[in-house]
Specification:
It is a single chain. It contains five helices and two strands, in the order H-E-E-H-H-H-H. The protein has 176 residues and is mostly helical. Strands 1-2 form a two-stranded antiparallel sheet. The termini are far apart. It comes from Acanthaster planci (Crown-of-thorns starfish). This is Protein FAM177A1-like.
């Protein structure tokens, strides 16, 4: 019972607010004792998992749209030569836009949307990969050469520091 009374109270309060807004909207805004505040409606409402974001239009965006929509020159008031030049430029602009659009769609349809100089990019990548491999091979060869030189030096040092068996004991005879 209390819930229905509470909901009636809330709905009646909402209705009275709406009625009050309608009355304010009906009264003239030029009356000195009547001051109204405009309610801006959001341009777009985006719902996220953690809340809601409301986007409003700015005055600058509205002015930009109006400036683009209004032509800068009224072609009906132009003399013949500027009139013809104006429509030539308009026709050329629209033709180029249409060709650009159709060319993009045709390229996508034919599957030729790769970069213009993809062959050069592939060649560059191939050459750098080859160069890297040759540098790696050269590095390995240098490392092997260093190891061989180190082994040869170690053998030479060992041979110089050790005395041959026959030279140390000449009485024993020949080497086995």
């Amino acid at each position: 019972m209390e819930e229905s009374a509470l909901s009636q109270t809330t709905s009646s309060a909402t209705a009275s607010i709406l009625l009050h807004e309608e009355e304010v909207a009906k009264t003239p805004a030029t009356a000195p004792d009547n001051i109204t505040v405009g309610i801006r409606k959001p341009k777009r409402v985006i719902h996220f998992s953690d809340g809601v974001l409301e986007e409003y239009t700015s005055d600058e965006e509205d002015e930009d749209k109006k400036a683009v929509a209004e032509p800068t020159v009224d072609p009906k008031t132009l003399p013949w030569i500027p009139y013809l030049w104006y429509y030539t430029v308009v026709a050329a602009t629209k033709t180029i836009g249409a060709c650009d659009f159709l060319g993009e769609k045709l390229a996508y349809f034919l599957g030729i949307t790769s970069p213009k100089y993809q062959f050069a990019i592939n060649e560059y990548n191939r050459l750098t990969e080859e160069e890297r491999k040759t540098l790696d091979l050269d590095q390995e060869e240098k490392e092997q050469r260093r190891e061989r030189i180190a082994m040869m030096q170690a053998n030479r040092v060992y041979a110089e520091t050790t005395v041959p068996y026959s030279a140390a004991n000449p009485s024993l005879g020949t080497d086995l």
